[in-house]
Amino acid sequence: MPEQPTRQGLVVDALFGFAVFAVVAIAVGADVSGEGDQALGYVMAFLLGGLMLLRRPAPVLVLLATCVLVIGNYVIELPTIGLAIPVAGALYSAAEAGRTRWAAGGSIALLLVSTLARLGQGQDIAYLLGYELATTVAVMGAAIALGDGARQRREGARQRERIAALDTQARDAEAAERSARERTGIARDLHDAVGHHLSVVSLHAAVATEALEEDEADLPTAREELAHVRQASREGLRDLRATVRALREPGAEVEPIAGLAHLESLVGSVRDAGLTVEVSGSAGEGLPGLVDATAYRVIQEALTNTLRHARARRARVLLERDGEEFVVTVTDDGRTVDVPVREGSGLTGMRERVRMAGGAVEFGSVPAGGFRVSARLPVGGGV
Predict the structure, then answer these.
(1) Nearest 5 degrees, angle CA 296-CA 298-CA 299?
(2) Cβ-Cβ contacts under 8 Å for 101 (sequence gap 6 or more)
(3) Cα(303)–Cα(296) distance, integer angstroms
(4) What's the topology of domain 271-383?
(5) Which of 44-48, 95-99, 304-308 has the lowest mean pLDDT?
């Protein structure tokens, strides 16, 4: 595609045209044969130089027009201006614009016409073919080679710019993806750290309110429930602080807040909220840290959902090793959901955590009544 001239390009082309005019004009003035109209020779020099202003938008047209003018210069017997010098600028411009074949073809055509015409005029064949032809071919070839080299350098620069732009886009996309993953991780951690404790607080606060609103206020029950509220709030703040510290200081030593070592404490808080929880099985030896934390979060989310939504009285947590997998199953005897389960942030976060550990999770209603969550985690895939 022809290059559209800019203001700087027009200045360069004007200087280029002046150089062509000056060289041809010097050749016209230096002609000692005395033949031809010198004034028309200078007009020819002006026309050849002026064509350079069109070399960017119409390089092939400039090349053809230059060839016609050079041939016309000899047909009407104007002062001798040579062959290679007048067309060098046009050849360079055509090759620079990617029209190398046109430049080569124009050069060959000019050489053939000029050589045959001069041989027909009886000029010395040894001088014509042995010296002048070689010199002319060298100058024309140099002009084409310089133009093609400039085009390749320009295209190389553009290619590097495109590669740099694509690289920048890829880095931006990677940064956006990393930021999205970080936001998702923060949301998941905050939900896990605070959601369970707030659910416990809400349940105990509701019981305390009911105890105080009775005709005869049950103060001991209210005090007991408020004590559970206070305990759950402390644990929630502790987990929240640990999560924020881990996010703010990734390399800092933070006491793990998610792990099966804390399972008894988790189950105790759920039992205090009024749900009977039975735990059976064990994790066994050598459970990777990632799998351990993921299993704890699955149990925490499942029991929290049971407290908030299931209206259940009992829940059962089963831990078992199945070959190279650690299986965590949480079931309750709450209400059966007949429609497909709509995943909220909790279930979505649970699925994401299990996927990060290389496992799979299933959840849904139990035909006999209740809800079941089952996660299978590869023991060899965690760290």
Answers:
(1) 65
(2) none
(3) 11
(4) Heat Shock Protein 90 (3.30.565)
(5) 304-308
Q: Which residues contact 355 (CB under 8 A, 6 or more apart)?
A: none
Count of residues for the chain? Answer: 383
Cβ–Cβ under 8 Å, residues 135 and 129: no
* Cross-strand bridge partners of residue 314: 276
Q: Cα–Cα distance between 300 and 278 in angstroms, integer?
A: 14
> Scanning the structure block, which residue is given the tokens 């073809």?
105
Burial 263-285 (b: 16+ CB within 10 A, else e): beebbebbebbebebebeeebee
What does the alpha-carbon distance between residue 80 and residue 374 come to, in Å, rounded to a whole number? 96
Residue 363, strand partner residues: 373
Tokens 């046109």, residue? 102
Q: Residue 245 class from Cβ within 10 Å (0-12 exposed, 13-18 middle, 19+ buried)?
A: middle
Beta strand 314-322 with 276-281 is parallel
Report the DSSP pairing between strands 360-365 and 371-378.
antiparallel
Tell me the Cα Rg of the chain: 44
pLDDT tens digits, 93-126: 899 888 989 999 988 888 888 788 777 767 677 7
Token readout for 374 is 């089952």
Q: Which of 363, 341, 334, 191 is nearest to 276 (CA)?
A: 334
Q: State how far the Cα of 63 lies from the Cα of 137, in Å rounded to an integer.
A: 16
**3-class SS of residue 295:** helix
Dihedral, CA of residue 308, residue 311, residue 316 and residue 321, to nearest 10: -50
Whole-prediction pTM: 0.49
